[in-house]
Amino acid sequence: MKTYHPFMHTHPHAPREPLSRISITMPRSLLRKMDALAESCGQKNRSQALAGMVRALLVEHESEAGQGEAVGTITLVYDHHRSRLQETLTHIQHEHGREIISGLHVHLDHNNCLEVLVVRGGAARLRRLADRLATVRGVKHGKLTLTTSGRNLPV
Ligand code: NI
To answer: Ligand 1 centroid to 152 CA: how many Å?
Structure first.
């Protein structure tokens, strides 16, 4: 099965920025692994693959640094029959009305609900919000995915 890593790909309609040509050295075995990874993601252009990897690291670092504004999603799976669970989640979400931009609720089956919240704000604050929601009794799974607002990241 082919794994698709969107971070390895440049948006085809992205505005062109001047390119710099560099020459780098790395251990041969590392280069082989990089090529194999890129190829398994369908990326045949070595320069683009490497740029994609650097971009992914920048996003990760930016959101870990906790500085500036981050955007992301909080995914929750829970059993809505658990008493007071829904009420508690709603209460926490109302306290964070500024960070929560949007939400999606899917009734997965008779018991389970999937909720996806789109959030925006300081990375540290978003992490605290996600922790609070995920540790409510009855929440089976909670996951925060931080990405970049895109503002400080070249294409
Ligand atoms: Ni539901």
So the answer is: 37
